[in-house]
Design brief:
Bound molecules: adenosine-5'-triphosphate, magnesium ion
Number of strands of chain A: 7
Strand content of chain A: 5-15%
Radius of gyration of chain A: 17 Å
Structural class of chain A: alpha/beta
Oligomer: homodimer
Shape of chain A: globular
Largest interface: A-B, 37 and 37 residues
Largest sheet of chain A: 7 strands, mixed
């Protein structure tokens, strides 16, 4: 049975989508069957994998959540073997309000993904930069949560709000929710700020921080404009190396669970 | 009478808060009377100006919006002469749901800030990374909107959704809402990506892009951990230079309006 991993942090621009796309692509290259669910109305994971929002776009996560469309009617194959996508679109922004009136509104995504568990080894949920009903749905559906963190001051600030939300999710809906790990992203080893924040985080999260650190690497920011993951775009880049290393560490850590 | 300027872009991590704090501080240094309203539950503008969320924190924007507390009871003086802050806190995250049931829910912030117009030259609204009811309230209350944009691919993607929202706000609530300008942030002139995206933006927004470009400069990321603006933290940095330049250009462009 597959595992569901939410990639969440309400702080904006910390590398959630970049991690969802590139960790998934690296795991697919290692022969895992992977599904990315784009839970963000910005639909960056969808466009990062080459899916542009067009009027003729048949189905997205919105129809799955709100209209009960089966997930595999909306899912798409990507250019990467073994990696599928459940795309998002702008109308998902309406879901935050439309979900409010449904009964068991926090459990909707969990129930919609039940059939996907048999078809995939890993299902990654790319969350929007907010602790809203979409992110809540993702945390309730997930077995674990991977937390990307930029090594900067504002990133530290938001951690306790996220951990409180995780505690609340455990208390009311998902008692077994674990922390998959904390991933340091856009790390620039030349700045004292980054080193300082990194050591604060390692102390605060003792043992839950991935050894793999993702460096700031412009190739990672270029790849999505070509609709490709970093593995396809520039395999020799430090960005590709770091996400392949993360995939190895991710599998290794799971092998011990 | 003062002007209200929303700083908005639903893409996360593009420099909204950094611009709100440092443009305000530069204008205050130029003898303008400025108020920052922190409309983000992450409360980064509040902590960036040295206000930590504590249990004993008397009042924030939440009480002003939801309980009708007068704005000047919640406002605080900062360490910067002529710059005040209406702080945020975590419980503002609840406002998105609580505002839904109020009549004229889009006009609440606008009505709460009416008294502030006589007391300030400029009121900056730091928005969260979402096109939610808080951002909608900010766009309805504002005379103009300043759009910070990182020169990266995903940042381009979200522009049309933001412009559509601005059009909707003009149609239903605020016909005179203008674009104050588009600000290129975290610009790294060494990368082709940044130069490419910058020229795309200049073509798309003809004439609305500020000449001042904010470079990537680690001092800007360090300043908030000391609770200071870049002007106080490191006046000689490229970060301080660029925000002082932006303040000059901002005033110059307004002098022509
Ligand atoms: N390690 C990296 N090096 C350089 N650029 C990066 C790196 N990781 C991400 N980026 C770029 O930084 C920007 C923010 O990253 P991304 O969009 O993945 O963050 P996010 O947390 O998903 O943002 P949001 O909060 O808006 O969903 C993007 O333009 C992305 O291409
Ligand atoms: N020009 C710059 N150079 C270097 N770092 C910067 C610059 N501008 C902002 N930063 C840093 O980048 C991060 C993102 O900036 P900031 O928090 O201001 O963006 P935001 O758009 O307000 O984010 P959010 O969407 O979460 O509200 C912060 O850690 C900030 O300190
Ligand atoms: Mg994202
Ligand atoms: Mg901000």
């Amino acid at each position: 049975m597959g595992s569901i991993i939410a990639i969440a942090n309400q702080k904006g621009g910390v590398g959630k989508t970049t991690t969802a796309v590139n960790l998934s692509a690296a795991l697919a290259a290692a022969d895992c069957r992977v599904l990315i669910v784009d839970c963000d109305p910005q639909a960056n994971a969808s466009s990062g994998l080459g899916f542009q929002q067009t009027e003729s776009e048949p189905f997205t996560l919105y129809e799955v959540l709100i209209e009960g469309l089966p997930y595999d009617t909306a899912k798409r194959e990507t250019q990467i073997e073994q990696l599928d996508l459940l795309p998002s679109s702008r109308n998902l922004a309406g879901a935050n309000l439309e979900l409010v009136d449904l009964s068991d509104r926090e459990l909707i995504l969990w129930s919609r993904l039940a059939d996907a568990l048999a078809a995939y080894d890993f299902i990654f949920l790319d969350c929007p930069p907010a602790l809203d009903l979409l992110t809540l749905n993702a945390l309730v559906a997930a077995d674990s949560v991977l937390i990307p963190i930029q090594c900067e001051y504002f990133a530290l600030e938001g951690i306790s709000a996220l951990l409180d939300t995780i505690d609340r999710v455990r208390e009311f809906w998902n008692p077994d929710l674990m922390i998959e790990g904390v991933l340091l992203t856009m790390f620039d080893e030349r700045t004292t700020l980054a080193r300082q924040v990194a050591s604060d985080l390692q102390e605060f999260f003792e043992g839950q921080v991935f050894d793999t650190v993702i460096p700031r690497n412009v190739r990672l920011a270029e790849a999505p404009s070509h609709g490709r993951s970093i593995i396809q775009y520039d395999l020799r880049s430090r960005g590709a190396e770091s996400y392949l290393g993360l995939a190895r560490e991710f599998l290794f850590r799971r092998g011990q669970h």
